[in-house]
TrEMBL record:
<dbReference type="Pfam" id="PF13602">
    <property type="entry name" value="ADH_zinc_N_2"/>
</dbReference>
<protein>
    <submittedName>
        <fullName>Reticulon 4 interacting protein 1</fullName>
    </submittedName>
</protein>
<dbReference type="GO" id="GO:0016491">
    <property type="term" value="F:oxidoreductase activity"/>
</dbReference>
<comment type="similarity">
    <text>Belongs to the zinc-containing alcohol dehydrogenase family. Quinone oxidoreductase subfamily.</text>
</comment>
<keyword id="KW-0496">Mitochondrion</keyword>
<dbReference type="InterPro" id="IPR050700">
    <property type="entry name" value="YIM1/Zinc_Alcohol_DH_Fams"/>
</dbReference>
<dbReference type="InterPro" id="IPR036291">
    <property type="entry name" value="NAD(P)-bd_dom_sf"/>
</dbReference>
<keyword id="KW-0809">Transit peptide</keyword>
<dbReference type="GO" id="GO:0005739">
    <property type="term" value="C:mitochondrion"/>
</dbReference>
<keyword id="KW-0560">Oxidoreductase</keyword>
Length: 199
């Protein structure tokens, strides 16, 4: 759990992971700044975001630099954001940047298992050390099962503090259509495949 002064920035807040993260860190007591397009701002406020920044309304980096520094950044966008987002963190305070966009699978596909893992290890190691010397922590998110964490999430869902955001449900027979929808980007929560009602 955080205290309210703990500031969290979520880049790509309107997608499946982002909508969940906004609610989760808000339930833990953090101040949440969500970055999304203007048409998702109402959803972000409904989910509990304290501040909503429209990345289309001007230079995002400059907009965020006008705000107080952050303790934690969750980046589900990647790309150019990694070059400047770490400068938005409080230095020498344990502040952490976590990206969901890693080259792990790309390296494995390009170089094979052994060389891909080696290249990935070198990349994460060098970035971790580089940013640690600047006073912030740099991490890649990897997912693993955790019973206690799932229990905590179940309690938050049961209490109504976290609600799944579902953009659209497709029957199993329309899986290709669901993938096309995902490829369009700009998701608002998750796209779901109904495997029980297959029609």
């Amino acid at each position: 759990m955080f205290i309210f002064s703990y500031r969290v920035l979520i880049l790509g807040a309107s997608g499946g992971v982002g909508t969940f993260a906004v609610q989760l860190v808000k339930a833990w007591g953090a101040h949440v700044t969500a970055v999304c397009s203007h048409d998702a701002s109402t959803l972000m406020k409904k989910l509990g975001a304290d501040d909503v920044i429209d990345y289309k309304s001007g230079n995002l980096e400059q907009q965020l630099k006008t705000l107080p520094l952050f303790d934690f950044i969750l980046d589900s966008v990647g790309g150019s954001t990694e070059r400047w987002a770490l400068d938005l963190l409080k230095k020498w305070s344990g502040a952490t940047y976590v990206t969901l966009v890693t080259p792990f699978l790309i390296n494995m596909d390009k170089l094979g298992v052994a060389d891909g893992m080696l290249q990935t290890g070198v990349t994460i190691g060098s970035k971790t050390v580089k940013h640690l010397l600047k006073g912030v922590h740099y991490r890649w998110a990897f997912f693993m099962p955790s019973g206690p964490s799932l229990d905590e999430i179940a309690q938050l869902v049961d209490s109504g503090k976290v609600q799944p955001v579902i953009q659209e449900v497709f029957p199993f027979s329309e899986v290709p259509k669901a993938f096309l929808k995902l490829e369009e980007g700009h998701a608002r929560g998750k796209t779901v495949i109904d495997v029980i009602n297959k029609k």
